[in-house]
Amino acid sequence: MTMQDAPKETVAPADRSLTRRITWATWSGWGLDGFTNQMFPLALAGILLALGLTKAEGGLISSATLIASAIGGVIGGRLADRFGRVQVLVIVIGAYALFTALTATSQDFSQLLLWRTLEGLAFGAEWPVGAALMAEYASPERRGRVLAWVQSAWAVGWAGANLAYMVTGLIWAPEVAWRVMFLLGILPALVALVIRRKLRDVPRTQVTREPHQRGVFRELFGQELRRRTIIGTLFGATGLGSTYALQTWIPAYLLQERGLSVTGTAMYVWFMIAGNWLGYVLGGHVHDLIGRRRAFTVFYLSTAVSGIMFLLVAIDALWYNLMLSTLLGFFLAAQASGKGALFTELFPARVRGTGAGITYNFGRGLAALSPALIGWASAQLGLGQAIAIVLLVCTVLAIFFVWLLPETKGWQLD
């Protein structure tokens, strides 16, 4: 079934002002995602020290958060399809802000696991809601770059988390600084109120379902959409597995295996963030130019090469390592920049939010095994080598699965 075959949705014509507000509201949501989510990898070394946890326990908490986000993504997408995008977007932003702040109160492994799991539920719900909202207002020929621009906010949020990491690290000891960082996570709740005020008049996407049509999950796993749903999820899982292998453990790798200080680690991360932002902005143009499958192939291979060079090819030259940090950040973002377009283009409007939530966030849940596996394997192989092996395996699988999906470049959404 193509998008042209699906029943048409009724959407009020969007004027330029409305589209602009939607773009910036969705952009801010993704930026807040980056801010709250990237706090944990940066704070991980201090958390392990303060609570007396092992690397394996740290990896387990990362994995539990990601698994919860998979469940949250499915729930969020389903709610967005049923009740509208904006209303659900505001609720989930406020929820993950609250649970991020409560993480600061953790006194042991079980409390940390609880708050991170609840934060993951809300965090996962935000992505499919924002992606569906933005995809429905973007023109087909620009959809890749528009969603990539929105996703570039992740790098801005990551920069905010890195700044918080630097400032708190200079003022407080590591076992205290991480708590202050997570208290700052309440800030997104204030932004959610602004989003709600500015977008309360946005028309909901209304889709008329015929009496003979099946339920959402029966349709997604029915004959027409089953292949897209399953292979899309496997692609999401393996692709995010390579991303999480790097993003979760690189700060700890720099501190523990490279022997860098907090300031030195933050400097590497700054260069990675700069490359990350450029990767999001420019990567979307490449996805629109050469197609989703070719772009994903180029960017995943480039991520693997630059990541393995960063981890395993030791050259004692600052310029070399900072260049690799920038390239690694660029390719990580460039491959991620096409996912918002791809996962929304695969499904008709009546199941778009739920379909995107399953393929991206259930894939995220499977990818959650990556940080835990690295934490366990690092005791036998060393952290750098463990990251490199997981990165390579996930890259090969992601490229394989994306070529089993249809090329969606230029598809007209219903």
TrEMBL record:
Where is the protein localized?
Cell membrane
Checking Pfam families in the record gives: MFS_1 (PF07690)
Question: Where, by residue number, does the polypeptide cross the bilayer?
Answer: 35-53, 60-80, 86-106, 146-165, 177-195, 230-250, 262-283, 295-313, 383-405
Q: Which UniProt keywords apply?
A: Membrane, Transmembrane, Transmembrane helix
Q: Which SUPFAM superfamilies does the protein's record reference?
A: MFS general substrate transporter (SSF103473)
Domain of life of the native organism: Bacteria
Q: Where primarily located? A: membrane
Alphabetical GO CC annotations of the entry are:
plasma membrane
Please give the InterPro entries that the UniProt record associates with this protein: MFS, MFS_dom, MFS_trans_sf, Sugar_transporter_CS
Q: Enumerate the GO terms in the molecular function aspect.
A: carboxylic acid transmembrane transporter activity
Has UniProt tagged this entry with the keyword Translocase? no
- Domain named Major facilitator superfamily (MFS) profile is located at 22-409
Q: Which membrane topology describes this protein?
A: Multi-pass membrane protein
Q: What is this protein called?
A: Putative major facilitator superfamily transporter
